[in-house]
Design a protein that fits this description.
This protein is α/β, with parallel strands linked by helices. It has one domain: Response regulator (Rossmann fold, 3-Layer(aba) Sandwich), CATH 3.40.50.2300. Helices cover about 45% and strands about 20% of the residues. A five-stranded parallel beta sheet has the order 2-1-3-4-5, sandwiched between helices. It starts with 5 loop residues before the first strand and ends with a helix.
Length: about 120
């Protein structure tokens, strides 16, 4: 039988957060993790995603906001962007939503909330 798990792109540079996401999603979803915007762009060229969880603060000169804008412009069948950040400023939330994010969470995000949110967009 072919494994037909749905794919999630996770853009996160923090190793403990990457492990946390792996624990939450590994049984139900096929996850692809990129620590930078450049890495995420490469993965997006190779795979299609319905959901992307994007950290706002990333190394490498481009932010998660930049990536969300890129996905919104470059991929007509774009992944739904769920923005997460440890910096829970109103400006970050407004910027993420203007870029195209459909959800915004401050870290730490409860695993049940995050899983339910991703499930919601896969059922939509």
């Amino acid at each position: 039988m072919v494994d037909s798990k749905s794919k999630i792109l996770i853009v996160e540079d923090d190793l403990s957060s990457q492990q946390y996401y792996s624990i939450i999603f590994d049984e139900k979803y096929e996850i692809y993790i990129a620590p930078t915007v450049a890495g995420a762009k490469q993965i997006l060229k190779e795979h299609e995603f319905k959901v992307a969880i994007v950290d706002i603060s990333l190394p490498g000169g481009e932010s998660g906001i930049d990536l969300i804008k890129y996905m919104f412009q470059e991929y007509p069948q774009k992944p739904v962007a769920i923005a997460v950040t440890a910096h829970a400023f109103t400006k970050s939330q407004v910027d993420a939503q203007k870029a195209g994010a459909v959800e915004f969470f401050s870290k730490p995000v409860m695993s049940g909330v995050l899983l339910a949110t991703v499930d919601k967009y896969y059922k939509a």
